[in-house]
Design brief:
Blueprint lengths: L1 E2 L3 E4 L2 H8 L2 E2 L2 E3 L9 H13 L2 E3 L5 H14 L4 E3 L28 H10 L15 H6 L8 H12 L7 H9 L4 H15 L3
Parallel strand pairs: 1-3, 2-4, 2-5, 5-6
Helix pairs in contact: 6-8
Amino acid sequence: MIKIDEAIIVEGKYDKIKLSSIVDAVIIITNGFGIFKDTEKLELIRYYAKKTGIIILTDSDAAGRKIRGYIKGAIGDGRITNVYIPDIFGKERRKVKPSAEGKLGVEGMDTKVLLEALEKSGITASEGGKCSDITKLTLYELGLSGGENSRELRERLQVHLGLPRQLSAGALIEVLSTMMDSAELARITEKIKEESNGI
């Protein structure tokens, strides 16, 4: 398993499952053309483009190219690395028939081919990194979800950390997991609570 600092943008959940088996990275799904209307996800991608850089790894068909082009145009500032998979014709095991163009997508690629594609693009693995223990329960216990003023507290935390405001609790967990562990999150949340209470 190689650790990659940049967030990787893929089209679907099966692409994410495939990549998760070979890389340790933040992987964001566009849900195909769903990204065209998903402003929250686009904000998240913009955040990562500025903070860590993003890797766009879409399929090599027309749909994949359209999604790639849209993201590149919508990002503005930030570091974007394009990773391209080769044209390999075939059908993914879970599918009844091949895609419209008959090419394998990210999910159908051999692990070795995916790693080579990342390497060719100049993506390098980083050393180790700590594993985060932030979960939905962590957010609940800290008052960041499920409480009367949770949304307001979450927004203050996001502003404090320089994150986009329009993040769901789930998206926030994913981002926080790349930044800190639960102990550090607890310290920051407590500080924000104290500041808002005028202590």
